[in-house]
Amino acid sequence: MVTTCHLIELGLTPYGEALELQRRLAALRVEGRVGDLLLLLEHPPVITLGRGGERAHLLVPESSLSARGIEFFNVERGGDITYHGPGQLVGYPILNLAEHGRDVHFYLRRLEGILIETLTTFGLGASRWIGRTGVWVRGRKIASIGIHVSQWVTRHGFALNVDMNLAPFDLIVPCGIKSASATSVAKELSCPVPVEDVIPVLVQRFEAGLGVELLPTSLDVIVGAIGPAHRGVYPTHPPLEAHGAVASTASCLP
User: Fold this and answer.
1) Please, are residues 51 and 77 in contact by the beta-carbon 8 Å criterion?
2) What is the rounded distance in angstroms from the CA atom of residue 63 to the CA atom of residue 86?
3) Please, what is the Cα angle at 231 between 226 and 233, to 5 degrees?
């Protein structure tokens, strides 16, 4: 049965703000006060270290990051260290897995599949690397996945490198894998690829992969539905227009 999942596009959002938003929405999802949600956004430059990560995988002093314009956060997601920046499409599904199979590992594989199918649309032969969560193109990592699950409700999610500055990945051991290097859709296709071109493709693949219908929704609508006591605790963003069918992708699509 296809269920509704609210799609909220936040645009460029500071990491700390998005982190707090996820935590609050996930708590409301546990209580059954909101339904499933998918947050899509980009972050200003930030490095995050997951609960299983090693501080040594940050290759420069943390104190030097602010001078580079990069924030740093320790977070509760799985996985090791990664970098987020403009031009990277980040997705935070807030789902009740009790309604999606009650299988965390299967959920991770589904997220990988959604990203692989998205990249296939752009003519890229993406794949899994057995034993290493994420998505790879010719041995280079193009998408990272790290989640947190509490009472079957998910938060955190995936980050797809679309068209971004990859240099900050040199400041870390990406995902704790010393042999790993980062790539992006734009680098692999040798042409600019706007994040806006990727979103409708990913939306369709997400719907197919998880058996949901994504309903574009503004954050104000969600906040309004749970009562005035929660007003003011969430960032305010302009309302969305629904995505139509995928008519085109990047101009350099083969």
Assistant:
1) yes
2) 22
3) 110
Chain-centroid distance, C-alpha 199? 11
Q: pLDDT for 159-213, tens place per residue? A: 999 999 999 999 999 877 777 899 999 999 999 999 999 999 999 999 999 999 9
As a whole number of angstroms, the distance between CA 21 and CA 234 comes to 6
Three-class SS string for 189-224? HCCCCCHHHHHHHHHHHHHHHHCEEEEECCHHHHHH
Q: Give residue 7's identity as a one-letter amino acid code.
A: L
Question: How does pLDDT run across 41-81, given as a tens digit for each residue?
Answer: 999 999 999 998 899 999 999 999 999 999 999 999 998 99
Q: Measured between alpha carbons, how far is 27 from 30 in angstroms, rounded to an integer?
A: 5
pLDDT recorded at residue 227? 60
Q: Residue 114: enclosing H or E segment and its boundaries?
A: helix 104-121
* Catalytic residue numbers, as ranges: 175
Q: Are 239 and 215 in contact (CB under 8 A)?
A: no
Would you state the pLDDT for residue 224? Answer: 77
